[in-house]
Amino acid sequence: MMMNIKLMKKKIIIIAGAIILILIIAAGLQKFTNFKPFSLAWYYISGNYKAQYYRPSDEHFPKTYSGPSAETNLNIFIRDSKFIPNANAMPVGTTVTWRNEDKITHNITGDGWASGDLAPGQSFSKTFDSPGDYQYHCSIHPAMKGELIIR
């Protein structure tokens, strides 16, 4: 029983010490920084704080969006000598944009079409209007390969 009382006193001392430490830190913040924890706490406790919500009007944010559909646009990134992602299934009419985010020049070459060389930061877009499996690669780096499945 005596052991439990000693243990309980020890816990109370630790908790009291932690509270005092937190108050000292808050006082330092209050005095030496722009953050005012005591003022902020009093503001909320006193009931002066009222939540305010802003709802933008539909005039500025119309409910319909007439931009390009995400379902018919695909971005493929060239990074670390890889096409990311390198295999995709998309609907007919998809426009694919390859973006060279690597440090070296690459190109995209398919059966009967090619991008030409893309320096770092450049991009190339192609729209696929016919269904099929389209294999492509970088002719500068033949190990770089990708595939598009258009349905």
TrEMBL record:
InterPro entries listed in its UniProt record: Cupredoxin (IPR008972), EfeO_Cupredoxin (IPR028096), ET_Amicyanin (IPR052721)
Gene3D superfamilies: Cupredoxins - blue copper proteins
EfeO-type cupredoxin-like domain mapped to chain residues: 69-150
Signal peptide: none
Name the UniProt record assigns to this protein: EfeO-type cupredoxin-like domain-containing protein
Organism: Candidatus Portnoybacteria bacterium CG_4_8_14_3_um_filter_40_10
